[in-house]
Design goal:
Length: about 900
Amino acid sequence: MVRARRIWVTAAALLAVAGASPGVAVAHSQPPSPPGALTGDGGAPLPPGWRLAGGGPEPQLVWRSDRPVPMGDARVEFRAGGRLLGVPRPAADGHTFRLPLDGRRAAELRGLEVWSGGRRLDAREAAGAASAARLPAPLPANGVDPGKPGAYRTKTGEYGLKSVRLPGFSAPVEMRAVVVAPVGASGKRPLALFLHGRHYTCYKGQDIAGEWPCKAGTKPVPSHRGYLRDQKLLASQGYVTVSISANGINGQDFAAEDGGAQARSSLVRLHLARWAGWAEHPETAPKAVREAPRADLSRVLLVGHSRGGEGVNRAALDSLTPPPAEQDGYHGPVRWNIRGTVLIGPTVFGQNPVPDVPSMTILPGCDGDVSDLQGEVYVDGTRAVGNGTALHSAVYMIGANHNFFNSEWTPGQATAPADDDFFDDSEHRDAVCAKRAATRLTADQQHRAGATYIAAAARLFVAGDDRVRPLLDGSGKRAPSADPARVLSHAVGARRGAGFLPDGGVSVTGGTLCAAVDPSPAKTCLGTGAKGASPHFALWETPREAGRHAIALRWNRAGTPARVTAKQPVSLSGAKALALRLFVPPNTRGARLDVTLTDAAGKKAKLGRVTVDGLPGSQRTASYWAREIRVPLSAAERAGLDLGSVKSMELTPRSASGRAWLMDAWGWRPGTPAVRTDALPRVDVGRTTVDEGDSGVRTYRVPVKVTGRGGSGQVRVYVLDPATGKATDRLVTVRPGGQDIDVPVEVKGNTRYDTDTSYDVLVKAVRGAVVGSYRGGITVRDDDPAPTMTVTPVAGDVTEGQPLKWRVSLSEAVQVDMGALFQVAPATAPELSTKDVPASWLRDTTGEKPDPVRPLSKLSGLYLWADIPAGRTSADLTLPTVKDRVRESKESVRFRQIDMLTGEPKAGGLELSGSVRDAS
């Protein structure tokens, strides 16, 4: 994120497109409600910074921040009463966000909040306790350090190809990349492809923008050059590496329902297809590729940062099962094999990880962008979905932020403006993540640690070197090249067998089977009073989720066990240890628990005692994260326990008091098995737009495709009520080619002017299936004519000190809120000036001061806004004036109606004009 930088406002009218109103000025954070403004529930005014704007088929809910909201990877989301309203469109000013209401009424806008990456944006973060955070002790060094440079020299080059068209994007997307390859390496070499995340796209000096294409005189931000350090390390070890540019997606993905994941997948596969062709016909390759060793497309590693992480996850899925052709930008054969993915601070809007492709997810402990660390879903969300042979690792890097993994997003290293994404509040220094905190990493330390762990994933997933696995799978080893960073890991899959999963049909006594996501704090795992957040409980798009649980323990005295009993006995035969993913509150130490197993015959065996410490954390971090704790099964074997039929597990606290949460427990043994890719059915939800019609009832069905090569699986389908936002869900068994997901939508035609309405459906994989396009539905377009809007002067010729007033009227009342935006425009001289209106009104409305005196038409942020509530036919607009002692002739003022779609004066639009006479 970029702070203290100028964000281009290409024209004041663009602010109008974003729903700006009289308080559009940068200097003012809480504009006054304009005349006729709508209110929320029961007529109460909307919270500070919020307003209702526009009208007709697309009324908008508008929020304006008092400080810049930088362009980043996490989505900005509007929520009401804890439920998701939608993802608003950002304005060019970096402060204003606009969301079409799609049929929701003002009375339903209760409890408005703005969230991004698990962090609330419209409320100041409370100052948490400034207790000193302590780093965990360094782990023992691993026998193999993947961060050491290899034997090869490296060579860097670039290529640029013809831009490509991607579905849903109006402007072509660039095909540019930087290549770093080993010099003198023989034979075909594995290929590592990097994809950066969502960042500013264009710059000029200290000015930055998120548009595409870049305007004349500006340059593209070279985000794809930010991983050269990582590329050079891999190239020295014998990998051909390529980092691709995706500015064309970043500048257009605000309108993509999936945040641009499918577009990024298409771009990745378009580059891979070129590399596959160049491997077969090297003479056709660009110079940078010809001078590199030939790439081995059967050994590909994909590395994605932030939204790039979600993009490479989708590319791995699309390489196994193709997406619907109309959604995809690549339609050729798959001539490559993805051996694994590395996901750095990734988004996971769809919560649809690929279960049968190995992955490593880096979770930055001080991420100020994707601050909820939702990437943990790439681990937790794979459990029981696939066959379990793929390792899915989460690597928690204490003190790392979001941006510094990319040198082009790092101040002091970047070509374009850059800054630290973890905002350091000078009044409330964060104990963990402030720039000078003992737990915080420098940019160089963070990038070095990131490069080391990327190389570890390459060595395990692509080269098959099991010696680096202990760095990634929770075995408690460290890579010295990453020092002084403290890096912890846990994992699922690989050689983990049966175990105890909260959603696997277990019963719990002495503890609580708690919900990861639920509107009731009493049912959620963290409840109220938690100091920070948990990556394991990251929100999705529904206020309540089925099938996401953990086991919560709370004790006030030692010795009372919590028992987890499996519905059917589980087999731990062949396992060497019981691996528990367990966490305690941040900054706590010394929680002790005994671990005991009981077999189906009732025989018990105490495995041992474990001690668990919390991570360094604060109110602003997601530090409730599970450590992997391994307890050897040797004690159970000596006791004669039947490990082939284990019925229950007990956790008995031995410390005086405390809290803990168990994510799961597995039978574990060392090694990395060969990954088996099963032919899983794939689900993609589409969207259809239909006209409402004038009469009758029509039934439409949400378009859903189930493809694949066979088999069946289960998904959970959520259907959202367009009026309340509440979701109903059901478990559905799907088969390729089947019509198992059937969501009918009844549309009643009428001749009343109204808003468009969206009936949305969400899908998430549960078992034996994968999901591509997770979101879709039916959008019903209102096709009735709008009422005519006119303007009548109420007081259009006044004496100074009296207000000018105009009435905006409709030809008839309608059932939606209507509105019009007017921007000041040049009038007949002499014009009303900044000294002819109250100074306080001018400041509140535009952020400007009266001096130096100038015509009102010279102000870029002066707007008047008319909102006509549903059922009413008019609203008044007022422009106050002041009485002065200066003798002057009659002065005039004029406002022109602004087109809400273009931000430009509306052709044939309404005008407000008035004159003010001298009082003397």
